[in-house]
Amino acid sequence: MPEALPETRDPGAAPSGSDQRQPANGADALASPESPIPNPQSRLHVYYGGTFDPFHNGHLAIAQLAAAALAAPVTLVPAADPPHRPPPGADAGQRLAMLEAAVAGMPELRVDRRELDRPGHSYTVDTLRSLREELGPQAPLVLLLGADSFLGLPGWHRWQDLFALAHLAVAERAGSRLGELPAALAAQVEPRWMQDPAALHGAPAGHVLRLRQPLQLESASEVRRRIAAGGDWQALVPPPVAAFIRAHGLYGVAGL
Q1: Which of 100, 110, 126 is nearest to 8 (CA)?
Q2: Packing angle, helices 239-248 and 92-103, rounded to 10
Q3: What does the DSSP 8-state code read for residue 24?
Q4: How far apart are CA 41 and CA 29, in angstroms?
Q5: Distance in angstroms (rounded) separating the CA atoms of residues 71 and 142
Q6: At residue 35, does pLDDT exceed 50?
């Protein structure tokens, strides 16, 4: 999920749910055999959103770290194309295809296209509300996001509502500045910090957990910059993503 730019998603980046059947609402979803999410009441549900333009090794490291630390699959939710301007690099269909190729064969990672199918602006709070309708009020739900996105939460649409809908898991690395939170964000999260991932399994929402990750230098903007400059970029992305970029001439690669 980053929330649109501007607000096709949060500037932060939050299933395998290409199954888009109409879910049951509220507590009925917990018992309903029609729920598109298996056993919604019995396990942690983790969602990681972003533009993923392109999906790179840093994204993959965060998703795999969370899957291992939280003992739960991680669902990647690509953001829709901004309605007010052309796609930033690859369009929504191409970004979805790169994601699906990158996680193929990884049972701990899944992809959900709900934000691509939803008309209008794509806000993280709306995505979490739709998930909560499917999962019911008691299922543990986690929004995974990087530290930079977390620090930018006060600029997101209805960001205070996120804490009632889900836990937040923040992928932190050296230099993340989580000790320098904006005042409004600090007031919201100070009583919510948790040290033990198990705490997220025992409540539906409201906790904030730090996930320490190995240092990853990749960024989508750096991948695009290197491609445009004719530099070395293929080692920064999963091999299926590199193959897709080359095959479709994305980010100017065809001119190299």
Answers
A1: 126
A2: 150
A3: P
A4: 9
A5: 12
A6: no
Q: Which residues contact 5 (CB under 8 A, 6 or more apart)?
A: 11, 51, 79, 82, 88
Residues in the chain: 256
Q: What is 198-244 written as a DSSP string?
A: HHHHTSSS--EEEEE-------HHHHHHHHHHT---GGGS-HHHHHH
At residue 248, does pLDDT exceed 80?
A: yes
pLDDT at 158: 95
How many other CB atoms are there within 10 angstroms of residue 235's CB atom?
A: 10
C-alpha distance from residue 249 to each of 30, 64, 102, 254 (Å): 45, 28, 17, 5
Contact 145, 170 (CB under 8 A): yes
**Alpha carbon separation from 70 to 93, 140, 210, 243 (Å, rounded):** 29, 11, 11, 31
pLDDT tens profile 58-92:
999 999 999 999 999 999 999 988 665 666 689 99
Contacts of 191 by beta carbon, 8 Å cutoff, 6+ apart: none
Q: Are 112 and 89 in contact (CB under 8 A)?
A: no
Q: Cβ(223)–Cβ(236) under 8 Å?
A: yes
Please state, in angstroms and as integers, the Cα–Cα distance from residue 74 to each residue in 88, 109, 166, 205, 216, following that order.
25, 5, 14, 16, 19
- 229 residue type, one letter: A
Question: Is-contact 89 251, C-beta < 8 A?
Answer: yes
Enter the tokens of residue 53. 């333009």
